[in-house]
Design a protein that fits this description.
The structure is a homodimer of 303-residue chains. With 303 residues, chain A is α/β, with parallel strands linked by helices. Chain A has a domain at 165-280: 2-keto-3-deoxy-galactonokinase, C-terminal domain (Nucleotidyltransferase, domain 5, 2-Layer Sandwich), CATH 3.30.420. The first copy, chain A, has nine helices and 13 strands. Chain A has helices at residues 44-52, 124-134, 167-177, 191-203, 208-222, 226-244, 246-249, 260-272, 282-297; strands at 5-10, 15-20, 26-32, 62-68, 81-83, 104-108, 111-114, 119-121, 140-144, 149-155, 158-165, 254-258, 277-281. In chain A, the strands form three sheets. Chain A has a five-stranded mixed sheet with strand order 3-2-1-4-6, with helices on both faces. The first copy, chain A, has a five-stranded mixed sheet with strand order 11-10-9-12-13, sandwiched between helices. Chain A has a three-stranded mixed sheet with strand order 5-7-8, with no helix packed on it. In chain A, strand 2 (15-20) and strand 3 (26-32) form a beta hairpin. In chain A, helix 3 runs antiparallel to helix 6 (226-244) and helix 4 (191-203) runs parallel beside helix 6 (226-244). The first copy, chain A, is globular, with a radius of gyration of 21 Å. At the A-B interface, strand 11, helix 3, helix 5 and helix 6 of A face strand 11, helix 3, helix 5 and helix 6 of B.
Chain lengths: 303, 303
């Protein structure tokens, strides 16, 4: 079966590609830890072809539709931001980087920005579009956990407003580069510690940096174990996000879109505050969004 | 003039030593970026002698009194923690690491711990003791800014309770290792941006990680300049600490003990919330504290 087009999610950390047949079936999938932050200017086409080249027909041009940080200033080619409130998808404004290999024709999709408060997204808008493909009348809140998690108010098929929380990046920095790295495990989970820390930050967010140091002190003085420390660190930071995103989840249904593990952490946090929460598969949303973009680009393989 | 004893502040990042004469005058001072975190086990005596060896008489033993992280588990030799409420100074419980060089006799001072909430300090207790040497009747709050800043309630010559905030470490991590490193300057200051960000976090601390991401978005969308970004980052994190430490400064006079630059940041933050604030020189407090310890150890040069 031949590849009609290639769907690509090119984020900061990872590059993921799906080879799609004419009937919509996924023929192959490829993933590499070759996110935008690890690719040098001028090496994007080469990096992409390393991953997908073997799947391409030599006698025709295959469309490649890309979402994510590949469209950032430090990415392959800067794609514009569309200003919210807006439809998540604007394939007409996608940019087309010059490519040397005649087998591919590349489009990089737009991101979404917001003026007040200042905010941006690249990649999540495509997942949102994908979610709306199967839930066209959705009216509520989508939460997309990640390094920079997004809370997005959606109605009428549009992104109305959104807010980004740096929770994931803060967790990684504190767990690996701070004084807490000595006491926080790389794996392991203690649900009661997570929930207790979450509730503590929810009720007194201003104590955050003091609570963080207490993890270190508890490990020194009471031998707090490393999995427990990890769960407390996560709970403290999630408490801040859940408190900060209250305006989103308090009066609306929240659908979590993302990977299993992280979605479970967010689900347990939201359930602890009795939020109305559902989940959706992040990869399916990404693919559905890229497919909508592909369909509307009306790009066809050139014979 | 010969050295009667050596005062040493050995922290995580720096090693500082003062050669003191019999009449109390400082004969020489030495500083090196050889904090405990950069010294291997077994190399502490060698590192110290590299710094102070030239000042020592060869025909007698000179006492060396050390405060700070040299007494931590990962330091030269672990010194006990005394549990607050307590006098800051317990020279009788200082530990004496074995040394090979006959010219020195070393004592490492104790730290202070607190059971609830879990907290520890090493080095600040000596500065507090030094401050109390010249203000024996002090009743109020001491704030010692730093990588891990301490807020300490003092009365009756004792540390009553304290709380550590990881503000400085969070600032350094975010400014140098996060997505904000692209937009935050290494130097530069914008006082109005600092105060505006401070007040924003004070009124809504739960938005902290969203505010952090807004620095990045504002730089992308509005060209927020790098000194302004740096001041906003500092203001956001200081707002959290000032809010978290409210119980300390709200009803008491606060004396800031530390280095000029950092003390000025804390002073402007505290003045923005109309706190009653004074300052004291951190180095003088350290020296006065080490001197009290030396006097009470009654260590004298051995002829």
């Amino acid at each position: 079966m031949s590849v009609e087009w290639v769907a690509v999610d090119w984020g900061t950390t990872n590059l993921r590609a799906w080879m799609i047949a004419a009937d919509g079936r996924i023929i192959a999938r490829q993933t590499a830890a070759l996110g935008v932050s690890s690719v040098q200017k001028g090496q994007f086409e080469h990096t992409l072809l390393d991953l997908i080249g073997d799947s391409l027909e030599s006698d025709r041009q295959t469309p490649v539709v890309i979402c994510g940080m590949a469209g950032a200033r430090q990415g392959w080619l800067e794609a514009p931001y569309v200003c919210a409130p807006c439809n998540p998808l604007h394939p007409g404004q996608a940019v087309q980087p010059e490519t040397r290999d005649p087998r591919i024709s590349v489009r990089i999709l737009t991101g979404v920005m917001q003026a007040r408060p200042s905010d941006v997204m690249r990649g999540e808008e495509t997942q949102i579009s994908g979610y709306l493909a199967t839930h066209p009348d959705f009216d509520g809140v989508l939460c997309l956990p990640g390094t920079h998690s997004k809370w997005v108010r959606v109605s009428g098929g549009c992104i109305q407003s959104f807010r980004t929380f740096m929770t994931g990046e803060c967790f990684n920095l504190l767990a690996t580069n701070s004084v807490l790295s000595h006491v926080v495990a790389g794996e392991g989970w203690n649900a009661p510690s997570f929930i207790a820390a979450l509730k503590q930050t929810l009720s007194a967010p201003q104590h955050l940096t003091a609570q963080l140091f207490s993890i270190r002190a508890s490990a020194l003085l009471e031998g707090l174990d490393r999995a427990q420390s990890r769960s407390e660190l996560s709970g403290i930071l999630m408490g801040l996000e859940i408190g900060g995103a209250r305006e989103f989840w308090e009066k609306s249904k929240t659908v979590l879109i993302g990977h299993d593990k992280l979605v479970q952490v967010y689900r347990s946090a939201l359930e602890a505050v009795s939020a109305n929460v559902e989940t959706a598969d992040g990869e399916i949303c990404t693919l559905d969004g890229l497919r909508r973009a592909y369909d509307s680009l009306k790009l066809c393989p050139v014979a």
